[in-house]
UniProtKB/TrEMBL annotation, chain A:
Pfam families: CoA_trans. Coiled coil: none annotated. The lineage of its organism: Bacteria, Pseudomonadati, Pseudomonadota, Betaproteobacteria, Neisseriales. GO terms for molecular function: succinyl-CoA:3-oxo-acid CoA-transferase activity. PANTHER family: ACETATE COA-TRANSFERASE SUBUNIT ALPHA (PTHR13707:SF60), KETOACID-COENZYME A TRANSFERASE (PTHR13707). This is 3-oxoacid CoA-transferase, A subunit.
From TrEMBL, chain B:
NCBIfam families: pcaJ_scoB_fam (TIGR02428). It comes from the Bacteria. It comes from Pseudogulbenkiania ferrooxidans 2002. SUPFAM superfamilies: NagB/RpiA/CoA transferase-like. Keywords: Transferase. This is 3-oxoacid CoA-transferase, B subunit. PANTHER family: KETOACID-COENZYME A TRANSFERASE, SUCCINYL-COA:3-KETOACID COENZYME A TRANSFERASE SUBUNIT B-RELATED. Belongs to the 3-oxoacid CoA-transferase subunit B family. It is an enzyme of class 2 (transferase).
């Protein structure tokens, strides 16, 4: 049904609600003056991951497998982009999802807080073989640096990590008697996230603890791609409970989801 | 010396968690504390992955892969509990909103430095998770650990030899033989497991200890 509508891949036009002189040539570059229904939904996972380029920085939501957009990751593996820098809390579990992307040798660097787990054997082997670069970031600093990027901040001073190995060589400052470390934002070319429901404007709600990094990663990527269990009509999501406003989302793709359906 | 079992340690820590507190229990041994919090006492358990009001493990068959704790084990949410994203979750931790966190440790120093994330051993893959945020952020940082390593060395040391998680962040150490506070005046023994003497404890800990009653008198 969504294939019937015109859809926009990538960012919607900047300033699309500004139409200073209807009928005359608009001043907004990239906009031909047409007025069409904004639809960020795409019909396939293949379209959803189109344009992810070699060497891109890609944020991937999830805490372990909760909230991990496994279908988008599978589509990315099929799409073939390589030399990726991945931002995720972990470094893959078992052999599926992020672990499969690593196993396909598409990732040159991973930025994460907790790579080593009972089932991180794919990452462990690549790391020990020197085939993947690791930037280890305390989890709260990972979140704060992502939020800083999304909020347009140049850097943050965080108390986390002060006096530890993970702050070695970094600028520090004492503010009001407390020690802080200067950390820079982490931004991405793309974010792949998982939500429960989305609409054609890109508004999202999440499910339980699968929310985790999704909302903050959505703010920090040039192109945020959300897989959802269900695309609902505009207006179906209560504005009071929308977690991610559509401004942060560029593409929405619906997948079946056993977990959500069971709940 | 007489030693508490791990469950007895968990029970001991649970006794000191007051009603109404916001608490984060670290992965591993601290998770056990939840088993000993009295049901009638309202305590808000926080999990770094975006839960407040975390409940106990679900009945078999009721597990939800999208409702897990920081250790990625299935949990439940209490009535009144909430979900939130990682930015908010770590604001709760780093911003001083949690009353208590309970962490495991490799070592704690006399000045309250904590080492619990990395042995620094060659070939070891480091993983830090949320430990550093909890160490700097919670109003009170409780450590729960055996006093001695498996090879008999004190984990309470003058200076940590393992890489630090946080500097001067520990407030209280619950060990299997004693409860010890980190204070500006040094390490103060609050409580000894029944049958243990202060002198015995001091013999195996390589930093000076004070007994709480004497410290109070001084």
């Amino acid at each position: 049904m969504f294939g019937q509508r015109p859809f926009v891949i990538g960012a919607a036009w900047p300033g699309m609600f500004i139409n200073p002189s209807k009928g005359s040539r608009p001043l907004i570059e990239g906009w031909d003056g047409s007025e069409t229904m904004i639809d960020k939904t795409v019909a396939s996972l293949e379209e959803a991951v189109a344009g992810i380029f070699d060497g891109a920085t890609v944020m991937i939501g999830g805490f372990g497998t909760a909230g991990q957009p496994a279908e988008l990751i599978d589509a990315l593996i099929a799409q073939g982009a390589k030399d990726l820098t991945i931002v995720n809390n972990n470094a893959g579990n078992g052999d599926i999802g992020l672990a499969a992307l690593l196993n396909a040798r598409r990732v040159k660097k991973i930025i994460c807080s907790f790579p080593r787990q009972a089932d991180s054997h794919v990452f462990d082997a690549l790391y020990r073989a020197g085939e993947i670069e690791l930037e280890l970031v305390p989890q709260g600093n990972l979140a704060a640096r992502i939020q800083a990027a999304g909020a347009g901040l140049g850097a943050i001073f965080t108390p986390t990590g002060y006096g530890t190995l993970l702050a070695e060589g970094k600028e520090t400052r004492e503010i009001d008697g407390k020690h802080y470390v200067l950390e820079y934002p982490i931004k991405a070319d793309f974010a792949l996230i998982k939500a429960l429901k989305g609409d054609r404007w890109g508004n999202l709600i999440y499910r339980k603890a699968a929310r985790n990094f999704g909302p903050i990663m959505a703010t920090a990527a040039a192109v945020t791609i959300a897989q959802v269990s269900e695309i609902v009509p505009l207006g179906a999501l209560d504005p009071e409970v929308i977690v991610t406003p559509g401004i942060f989302v560029q593409r929405v793709v619906a997948i079946g989801n056993a977990v959500a359906q069971a709940a | 010396m007489n030693k508490l079992t791990r469950d007895q340690m968990a029970e001991r820590v649970a006794r000191d968690i007051p009603e109404g507190s916001y608490v984060n229990l670290g992965i591993g041994l601290p998770t056990k504390v939840a088993n000993y919090l009295p049901k009638e006492r309202e305590i808000f358990l926080h999990s770094e992955n975006g839960l407040l009001g975390m409940g106990e493990a679900p009945e078999p068959g009721e597990e939800d892969p999208e409702l897990i704790n920081a250790g990625k084990e299935p949990v439940t949410l209490l009535e009144g509990g909430s979900f939130f994203h990682h930015g908010d979750s770590f604001a709760m931790m780093r911003g001083g909103h949690l009353d208590i966190c309970v962490l495991g440790a490799f070592q704690v120093s006399a000045s309250g430095d904590l080492a619990n994330w990395h042995t620094g051993a060659p070939g070891a893959i480091p993983a830090v998770g949320g430990a550093m945020d909890l160490a700097v952020g919670a109003k009170q940082v409780f450590v729960m650990m055996d006093l001695l390593t498996k090879t008999g060395e004190s984990k309470l040391v003058e200076a940590c030899s393992y890489p630090l998680t946080g500097v001067g962040c520990v407030d209280r150490i619950y060990t299997d033989v004693a409860v010890i506070d980190v204070t500006p005046d040094g390490l103060v023994v609050r409580e000894l497991v029944e049958g243990n003497s202060f002198d015995e404890l001091q013999r195996i800990v390589p930093v000076p200890l004070k007994m709480a009653s004497l410290a109070a008198a001084a």
